[in-house]
Amino acid sequence: MTRRSRHTIDVSDSIGVVSGISIVPEDAHALYVFGHGAGAGMTHFFMEEASEQLAGRRVATLRYNFPYKEAGRKAPNRAPVLIETVRAAVRAAREGFPGLPLFAGGKSMGGRMSSTAASQDALESLRGLVFFGFPLHAPGKDSAERGEHLHDVGLPMLFLQGTRDKLANLALLEPLLSEVDPRPDLRIVDDADHGFHVPKRSGRTDADVLEELCSIASAWMAERVD
Q1: In Å, what is the CA distance from 224 to each residue of 56, 156, 191?
Q2: Non-local CB neighbours of 223 within 8 Å, separated by 6+ positions
């Protein structure tokens, strides 16, 4: 049996509240606090399908909106607001599901804001971070600057990256991660772009790729649960 619930997450007096959705399988052994990317909220197809796939692999999820999406706006909030929202979502997961080991991260921006939050001040009870397409730089502006904070995270991290991702030049990401302690795990998905779409010539479908991503992520989390 899998339980699906709606949540209201109180971020702060000045920011207000955001919505959340949890999917919790009866035999869950971990919970993943799942932030969305810049262009799509918590109900985006990728977010919903990944959450269902993870539930089938005994990983519960708590998805949540950032305030700009909650308000129906397109432009993301400034980083301090996004970071505070990550902290509120992790706190809500810890308080709402006290028996489950916690992981956090997300798709693109949601993942980077999670790691930024963890680098600034430890996220209590967190076992590790999982990134579905870490956005290292803007398209065509290759730089590793946005990943410098990863040196200060101090948690196990899993990076799931496509070879055609225009927001993460692997020639920059790989040497950056090699200098982070503890050294993160990097899993590369051939032919996938930033949204984990693959061309027909690859011989695989987007559904195949998503299944691969969730299989890797759930196994990685399982290895870090007592």
Answers
A1: 18, 9, 29
A2: none
- Domains for the chain: give ranges and CATH numbers: 2-222 (3.40.50.1820)
Measured CA to CA, the distance from residue 148 to residue 152 in angstroms comes to 8
Measured CA to CA, the distance from residue 170 to residue 204 in angstroms comes to 22
Query: What rounded mean pLDDT belongs to the chain?
Result: 97
In whole angstroms, give the CA distance from residue 162 to residue 166. Answer: 9
pLDDT of residue 94: 97
Residue 226's pLDDT band (cuts 50, 70, 90): confident
Neighbouring-strand partners of residue 215: none
CA–CA gap between residue 54 and residue 48 (Å, rounded): 10
Going through 36-167 in order, the beta strands assigned E by DSSP cover 59-64, 102-107, 126-132, 157-162
Kindly give, in sequence order, each residue whose CB lies less than 8 Å from that of residue 54, ignoring residues fewer than 6 positions away: 23, 32, 60, 61, 214, 217, 218
Reading the block at residue 137, the tokens are 């730089």
